[in-house]
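Structure ticket #2291
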Amino acid sequence: MTSHVEQQVQAQIAAAKNKRQQRRQQRAELDAARIPGLAARHDAKMRRWATEDDEPGFPGVAEEPDGGDA
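Resolution: structure written out below.
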């Protein structure tokens, strides 16, 4: 027969394991929910980059007025 203290310790250990498992499961669910959003952001970024490459005078790119033959 186990003492009251040992029972309490075992109960605390079991509660900590349960809490840890719940946190792991929640993180896994949140990670799975992020995947479609990350893919959509990536697709939007690629589309934006594709349109920016086609636009003349894209900000951030210095163009030489004489064609670069300085």
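Closing remark: The mean pLDDT is 86.
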